[in-house]
Amino acid sequence: MRGTRRPNIQEWDFGEVSWMSLGGWIALVVLLAFVIYVISDGFYTVDAHERAVVLRFGKFRPPVVEPGLRFKIPLVDEVIKVSVAENSMRLPALSSSRGAQSDEEATLMLTGDLNAASVEWTIQWKVEEPEKFLFRFYNSSDPHYAERIIRTVAESVMNRLVGDYSIDEVLTERRGEIAQLAREAMQRILDSYDCGVVIRDLQMQRVRPPERVRPAFEAVNASLQTREQLENEAKKERNMRLPIALAERDKLIREAEGYAQRRRAEAEGEIAALLAQYREYEKAPAETRRRLYLETMEELLKQVQLQVIVDSELQRSILPLMQIPTEIK
After folding, report:
1. Per the CATH hierarchy, to which homologous superfamily does domain 87-209 belong?
2. C or N: which end of the chain has fewer Cβ atoms within 10 Å?
C-alpha cells in the first residue's frame, strides 16, 4: 500500500535486544534487593544485657538465643528481645505532679493495731527465663505491662504484711523481718504465674508515722530512748554491784559454816568432857564431887583480887580487927 513504510529488519532486532537487556537488569535489581533484605532482616544482634526468643511460625523455637550476631529465616522467624538486666523499682510510685500531702497518703498503710504508717520500699527484680516472661508478661503495645503487674503484687503483699504487725514493730525492730517475708511472698506469687521473674532483693526505705501525728510519735520515741538509757545504766550498776554482793555473800556463808563447825566441835568436846566426868562420878561419887568443887573454887578464886580466910573455929561474937577496905575495885 502506498504511503506505508515497511519496517527495517535491523531496527527491529535492536529493539528486541534492548527489551531483553532491560529484563535482565530488572531481574538483577530484584535479586540484589532480595539479598539486601535477607541480610538486613536475617541478621540481628543480641546485646549483652539481652536474650532473644525466636518464634518460628508463631511457635517458640528453643533454645533462648545468647548475646552475639545471629541469623534468622526472613518471613519465617520472628525475634523478640527480652532484657535480663536487673531492674529497680521504688514503691509506692509517687507522682511529681501531686502535692506532698497526696504523696504521703499514697504511702499510708494500716497496721495490726489500727494505726497508720507511711511505708516506702524498693525491689530489685530481673528476668531469668525469657521464654516464660514472653508468653506471660510481654505486651508489645505496652512496654511497662510487666512493671505494673509486679508493682501490684508488691503493694498487695506489703499491705497484707504490714497489717500483721503493730506500728511500733513496723517502725523499729521488725522492719527487716517484714522485708524478708515480703520478698518471699512476692516470689511465691510470681512463681505461681510461671513468668520467669525473680525478686533479687527487697529493702525497706522510709518507714515513719504520718505527718499529722509525727510529733506525738517523736515524743514517745524520746521517752522510749530515755527508758532504754535508764535501763542500761541500771543494768550497768547491777553488773558492778552484783559480783561484789555475791562475793560478800559467799564470804559470810563460809564464815557461818566455819563458825558452825567450830561451835559443833566445841559442843562435842564439852559433851565428851561431861560424859567423861559422869563416868568418873559413877566410879567414885564423893571424890568426884570434891574434885569438882575444888576445881570450881580454883577458877572462881582466880578472879577475886582480895581474899579473906576466916577460921571456922573462931567465935562468932569476937571479930578480928582487920583493915578491910570499904571499897574493892
Report:
1. Band 7 domain (3.30.479.30)
2. N
